[in-house]
Amino acid sequence: MLAELRGLNEECGVFGIWGHEDAAQISYYALHALQHRGQEGAGIVVTNGEGFQVIKDEGLVNEVFAGNRLNDLKGHGGIAQVRYSSENGRGIENVQPLLFRSTTGSISLAHNGNIVNAVELREHLERQGSIFQTNSDTEVLAHLIKRSSGSLTQRDRVKKALSMLKGAFAFVMLTEDSLMIAQDPNGLRPLSLGKLGDAWVVASETCAFDIIGAEHVRSVEPGELIIINNKGIHSERFAPAADSAMCSMEYVYFARPDSDIDGINIHMARKRCGKRLAREVKIDADVVTGVPDSSISAAIGFSEESGIPYELGLIKNRYVGRTFIEPSQELREKGVKMKLSPVRQVVNGKRVVMVDDSIVRGTTSKRIVTLLKEAGATEVHVVIASPPLVSPCFYGVDISTDSELIATNRSIDEIRELIGADSLTFLSPEAMLESIGRPDTTKNCGQCLACFTGEYPTDIYSDTALPHEKERVR
Amino acid sequence: MLAELRGLNEECGVFGIWGHEDAAQISYYALHALQHRGQEGAGIVVTNGEGFQVIKDEGLVNEVFAGNRLNDLKGHGGIAQVRYSSENGRGIENVQPLLFRSTTGSISLAHNGNIVNAVELREHLERQGSIFQTNSDTEVLAHLIKRSSGSLTQRDRVKKALSMLKGAFAFVMLTEDSLMIAQDPNGLRPLSLGKLGDAWVVASETCAFDIIGAEHVRSVEPGELIIINNKGIHSERFAPAADSAMCSMEYVYFARPDSDIDGINIHMARKRCGKRLAREVKIDADVVTGVPDSSISAAIGFSEESGIPYELGLIKNRYVGRTFIEPSQELREKGVKMKLSPVRQVVNGKRVVMVDDSIVRGTTSKRIVTLLKEAGATEVHVVIASPPLVSPCFYGVDISTDSELIATNRSIDEIRELIGADSLTFLSPEAMLESIGRPDTTKNCGQCLACFTGEYPTDIYSDTALPHEKERVR
Amino acid sequence: MLAELRGLNEECGVFGIWGHEDAAQISYYALHALQHRGQEGAGIVVTNGEGFQVIKDEGLVNEVFAGNRLNDLKGHGGIAQVRYSSENGRGIENVQPLLFRSTTGSISLAHNGNIVNAVELREHLERQGSIFQTNSDTEVLAHLIKRSSGSLTQRDRVKKALSMLKGAFAFVMLTEDSLMIAQDPNGLRPLSLGKLGDAWVVASETCAFDIIGAEHVRSVEPGELIIINNKGIHSERFAPAADSAMCSMEYVYFARPDSDIDGINIHMARKRCGKRLAREVKIDADVVTGVPDSSISAAIGFSEESGIPYELGLIKNRYVGRTFIEPSQELREKGVKMKLSPVRQVVNGKRVVMVDDSIVRGTTSKRIVTLLKEAGATEVHVVIASPPLVSPCFYGVDISTDSELIATNRSIDEIRELIGADSLTFLSPEAMLESIGRPDTTKNCGQCLACFTGEYPTDIYSDTALPHEKERVR
Amino acid sequence: MLAELRGLNEECGVFGIWGHEDAAQISYYALHALQHRGQEGAGIVVTNGEGFQVIKDEGLVNEVFAGNRLNDLKGHGGIAQVRYSSENGRGIENVQPLLFRSTTGSISLAHNGNIVNAVELREHLERQGSIFQTNSDTEVLAHLIKRSSGSLTQRDRVKKALSMLKGAFAFVMLTEDSLMIAQDPNGLRPLSLGKLGDAWVVASETCAFDIIGAEHVRSVEPGELIIINNKGIHSERFAPAADSAMCSMEYVYFARPDSDIDGINIHMARKRCGKRLAREVKIDADVVTGVPDSSISAAIGFSEESGIPYELGLIKNRYVGRTFIEPSQELREKGVKMKLSPVRQVVNGKRVVMVDDSIVRGTTSKRIVTLLKEAGATEVHVVIASPPLVSPCFYGVDISTDSELIATNRSIDEIRELIGADSLTFLSPEAMLESIGRPDTTKNCGQCLACFTGEYPTDIYSDTALPHEKERVR
């Protein structure tokens, strides 16, 4: 489904590098590969061992680093981020990496995830006199580190601070002499370690390794703190590993088809989901089409298994960008439509299987079904390559609140009716877990199913902010 | 194949509208659908019957009309263009529509194509004292119209001027009281007429009609001049129709899969080309993959006919835009690659059929074959859904000169060797014509095959400029 | 008086150079010295003998040439302009120098003045098929040159074209092999010739020579065409000299105090006007103050002659620029005032002589008198260092139409009453001519007095446009 | 002397307002009047009682608030600043007002001056875990306030924090319910209180009151904290007043001629300095000229007292702005000069008295003397309206270090020799104090003479940063 058409957004993608003389350039290319994880801000911070240099701004990677600005960043270590932001988290001051300069040791941080006890921790710190610069939950970690007793080593201060955080977090941190990497105890957000020649790299997705020619080494483990400096790499735990619970939506929707998470390729996992659906439901149809871009893999799988030809029944308008002027209600009623066009000669007079990755509010699904029927489709069978979404996410995915989710209190048939489809099929949680096929033998195969089941792998606090409610401080 | 990776570029896309109170807004949405035809400039000119208003600039449609600028354009008639420009044709003054204000009648023009006797006509006009504002061959038409004897009606002056032009041209022209549309005698460039409620619309591709909810009426005929004003629509010929010769590359590469040209859907035509290839050559392979975006349809067709599974073996990096900083030679050697990533888990250990739409210089094909092999492909069989390119185009396609075309003086096996493929197959011109299946019974089924055969449907002058040589006046 | 406060604006300043390897850089510095003559656009065109390079845009010189853009301009010949534009002449296409590229010989032009038969000439040319690019009267000359019979030499074509122009004009023109300079037959606009080492330079004001270290040689003569190329300098007449009629307002208001016009220093001329006033009227007062910046010289003269101390009674707010947000009517009523501040401790309780250079509509004079009285001045005696303005200017000065001029149908005492002054004194035309002291023995000492007397030195046509009416073509 | 020509810069100007519905607009106009105190950044923060709104950026006031951005700021209370910044203090994050959002009470601050124990305080706070956002000494006050014991009232926390600061400071602070104003115990920087209708205003200079139509009430007293809220105005001391020590350079150079400091008008004070010089030294000369802009008043005074005519001998090029491209060394040698032009007809063959306000490094004085002699002056007598500068300033004036000051280890005659003058006269400290004429009867008439004498009115710490050394944290 189209990210622009619904409130389902990833918070961001992070990258880190240590030991490469072109740290900024490598980070820049890596951010391009991660751009699909956040299009509203980008930044790179590098160090050459003496101080930091930073470029960050709102906008796409290409916009933020336009001109020759990148050449100003000289260093062998760096961290970088692309960022999606909810309405209240906008503003240049919230663009990451955050950089905290101090006579007692400067530090820069970038983060993917959501800390569920951030409001509590912030209020505690402010009562003690701390002054925050941003609305970001990321900043809490910096203050916790600085507040730790001065008698501890920096490593112990970082571990102590990390152990106070609850929720989903993949952190990359940069000091003048080290790159630090941390993953929350449940491993809710993907984070992979790689090597580029002698340099170490870390990224939210492995597609960033391919673009820079790096080799994948392993995933960062839940509860692990990795410290890389000129002496080498060091790993230890800041918390015991809890039940592994990788975000299911990474496989379903967020990650790029060419990325692997814990050894499983995204395109292949999605294709298996599509095949499984074709085995579970028999549809008498003429063509299979996927909603671009994230549903293409499942549609190919459905076509291959069912023997129904795969066609380009829907075309995405690639040039509808952030500054696109939406048609007025009046113009929409006059027929102006954007972002998706049906291919009339493909669907006219045909029974169409329309494969999508998920349904959030249902309004987009309804619009696409209508588009296809207006273009002449005689039947539209909607096939969803994941289970119904029924609960909000507190771990960094900007899903709507449950009252907005079409599936929360409705039967499959009621949803089908609402979106105007001739049939509607979801994948069950069990079938999805089997199709994705994570090797884990733990609960839920090590996947977080909270948005499908309402069972959260961590505590949730009364003041845990949903992403779009994050800003509480005026 | 990727437009960014080679010198194969369409000159532009045009749009026109008459009789709709939101002429500028409708043009804006239509330009989005045509954006793939030109990404270097965009413009809209509208009239409300008294004077003209214009917004145009270098950049993408979204950039040119950012902010609320569009609301400044009020009128019921308009013309618009998106533009690709060769090195010498850059500069804001060359962005179209061109607008010529005059006390004897103002006129605005936009153009798709290339006038092969433009240099000759321009020199003739300049010797008579005309002063040109641009390097564009489009401006020649304006001067020819203004120079015609004052005793003729405007319609006759336009006809007389059009009859002096040789080459490929699809013109949209706007005066304060009419929209005029003209197609060259060979019909080299696509141009379709449609209706949007009571308003008339015209566009280079029918995908522009789908986005605005307009209905396709018919193609503009070779040698036809259409004049639309408040009294209605009027058609006549400014020249007898010559042999119809629609550009083959529109079917092969340029047009959007959801467009139809003369009743033939582009996606379906390409898919038939892919199927035909699968019938003509038997390859023992494990997966079929297409080079995104324009080869996907042919790859799907090849897969369907051959029974070899279709996979996403190559991912396009969608965020590598115009301002992307290319990696230095040194970084490229260190493994940094952009724009296309192979999906290792899809191709590793597999025999891969790589379907592409065409080969120009061969450097990109070689790069992609290498990418796939480095990702573990054991064999790479390259299948091209068109014949070898051997001659330059004088009609508006920025193909390299023949000395740069890899196929000009080489056998198929020499090309295969150069690009490192295990096998290489082209479609023959005849098989391509049959697969596309134009209804015409004239020579070449009404398609221009000049770039494949060197036989040009019009005269070519000694000073006819190739697109990248256009600017001769200092 | 303050230019920003009234409709009294110079059209522009021009500069030209031939034979200096840093032609663009020298032009850039010269434009700074001429910036007071036009703040709405700036441009430089250079030639290295093969083609032209141009940078021009709306904005101040500093803005137009920001960054390192200037380094792109390489050449030994150049022309440049700073520009004031009336409402209808806005737009980047009207910024000069204009550049006309042609296979029959390219030419670039910049102009200071106003051609009074421009509308007539343009209509004539358009009827013959010429297409104009701008609203500028400057473009008429380019078309006239191009239209001249091809059998003439370029020099003769330029002379013939110049001879068809009526009005005020100082032209600098650049071809690939020469710099051409022309002055209208009355010499209405200042234009001086100088030398910078071996290079020739020409400028609207001599202050441009001081800044670049050039030596003043002589004024360009009325009706003279100067052609400078690599062979040397050549002068001839394109028209017999008419009565010399240098614009009086150049001495009174426009020119910089450090410029000389025909050997007379502007500061000294204004000071003599102030002294003359002090001899003509005896005022019993405590302090003399001038309205910054153009009246300071006259105020110093008045003080020196009268013995009344000169003080800074009014301060100009230098940072109120083009983008300044004017206070709303409501805020103005609450006391917000800009641009000029009275110095309370200087004028409080004092009888003040307020010297100004001229009065146009009178609204500003009234405002300043009010400011001074609110700051405690017990009496305000207004002394104007020029005669009353009663007629519009057709030669390039954007004076209001005569119905707006406060002096057109009013007695001195009525004006005094309207502006709230305790007394009001003007300089008579004769006293002004004597004080300025031009050496000419011709009529009016070779000065144009049209705005003071309504007697114009050239024909005026029924369709001669005032500067603010210039754009007649839609 | 020209600010651009030397390292003598004021740190900034501040403004505050409470109780006016157009707080942002009024602040905008006031900043224009204060623009001469800082041209590198500007900002306004307003509150409507619930939260804050802020606009700030690098650039001039006109640039920062271009467009309609100002209309977004709604509130009845506001603070504002214009800023000069030393090399290390650049960057948008250092532009003031600073804004610290907190759940325990947000606060915004703007500051003029230099806190001499800032480094010490910052290190102390960082050791306790505080994280700083800027390099600014201003931020220290915010952290001190937040760190104070939670049992104190806000007023007491502010007083306690202020009492820990040493040095020169004029603070304006804004909370959601009050405007707070504080002046250091020596009153080193000017700060005046005024009324605008029912609203209270405060500004670094009284010229800001004139522009907005406000009435001057009194100066803020040394060691005073003023709190203004909806209940009214409240004043108390946070420290006992020390010896009053207003910065002498405010009178000599920084402040605008139309401002009053402690009841003394700047123009009149400078004019008295000029008159005093004319009484102290008898020069046989033909003309007096001042170096624009700050020396004009003293030159007028010298002329009036000596009877030697005052002339415009030097013209400032007003359009040489921040983005001006400096001529290369080569071009300078060819005669290109900027910023100041001598008026040849005024000085040629004359004995010239050149009045300037001060001499810092002497290079500019030398250049001006040379300019005048090249323009024909037979003698140049330099008269300086202040004593020789011999010591650096730690209170916010960016004077060079003492090793760069021409007067540190040289006799008057050695300086005269170096700058090439025929004679050189300074004002003695005593004569300057008498001429300025502050009413105070305390030491030095309540003026700080540190830069003339090396005697500092406060402690100076070993790590007190000079303005250009401010940034010590990497």
From TrEMBL, chains A, B, C, D:
<dbReference type="InterPro" id="IPR017932">
    <property type="entry name" value="GATase_2_dom"/>
</dbReference>
<dbReference type="InterPro" id="IPR000836">
    <property type="entry name" value="PRTase_dom"/>
</dbReference>
<keyword id="KW-0808">Transferase</keyword>
<dbReference type="InterPro" id="IPR035584">
    <property type="entry name" value="PurF_N"/>
</dbReference>
<protein>
    <recommendedName>
        <fullName>Amidophosphoribosyltransferase</fullName>
        <ecNumber>2.4.2.14</ecNumber>
    </recommendedName>
</protein>
<feature type="binding site">
    <location>
        <position position="357"/>
    </location>
    <ligand>
        <name>Mg(2+)</name>
    </ligand>
</feature>
<dbReference type="InterPro" id="IPR005854">
    <property type="entry name" value="PurF"/>
</dbReference>
<feature type="binding site">
    <location>
        <position position="247"/>
    </location>
    <ligand>
        <name>[4Fe-4S] cluster</name>
    </ligand>
</feature>
<feature type="binding site">
    <location>
        <position position="356"/>
    </location>
    <ligand>
        <name>Mg(2+)</name>
    </ligand>
</feature>
<keyword id="KW-0328">Glycosyltransferase</keyword>
<dbReference type="InterPro" id="IPR029055">
    <property type="entry name" value="Ntn_hydrolases_N"/>
</dbReference>
<comment type="function">
    <text>Catalyzes the formation of phosphoribosylamine from phosphoribosylpyrophosphate (PRPP) and glutamine.</text>
</comment>
<keyword id="KW-0411">Iron-sulfur</keyword>
<dbReference type="InterPro" id="IPR029057">
    <property type="entry name" value="PRTase-like"/>
</dbReference>
<keyword id="KW-0408">Iron</keyword>
<keyword id="KW-0460">Magnesium</keyword>
<comment type="pathway">
    <text>Purine metabolism; IMP biosynthesis via de novo pathway; N(1)-(5-phospho-D-ribosyl)glycinamide from 5-phospho-alpha-D-ribose 1-diphosphate: step 1/2.</text>
</comment>
<feature type="binding site">
    <location>
        <position position="294"/>
    </location>
    <ligand>
        <name>Mg(2+)</name>
    </ligand>
</feature>
<feature type="binding site">
    <location>
        <position position="451"/>
    </location>
    <ligand>
        <name>[4Fe-4S] cluster</name>
    </ligand>
</feature>
<feature type="binding site">
    <location>
        <position position="448"/>
    </location>
    <ligand>
        <name>[4Fe-4S] cluster</name>
    </ligand>
</feature>
<feature type="domain" description="Glutamine amidotransferase type-2">
    <location>
        <begin position="12"/>
        <end position="231"/>
    </location>
</feature>
<keyword id="KW-0315">Glutamine amidotransferase</keyword>
<dbReference type="GO" id="GO:0004044">
    <property type="term" value="F:amidophosphoribosyltransferase activity"/>
</dbReference>
<keyword id="KW-0004">4Fe-4S</keyword>
<keyword id="KW-0658">Purine biosynthesis</keyword>
<feature type="active site" description="Nucleophile">
    <location>
        <position position="12"/>
    </location>
</feature>
<dbReference type="Pfam" id="PF13537">
    <property type="entry name" value="GATase_7"/>
</dbReference>
<keyword id="KW-0479">Metal-binding</keyword>
<feature type="binding site">
    <location>
        <position position="393"/>
    </location>
    <ligand>
        <name>[4Fe-4S] cluster</name>
    </ligand>
</feature>
<comment type="similarity">
    <text>In the C-terminal section; belongs to the purine/pyrimidine phosphoribosyltransferase family.</text>
</comment>
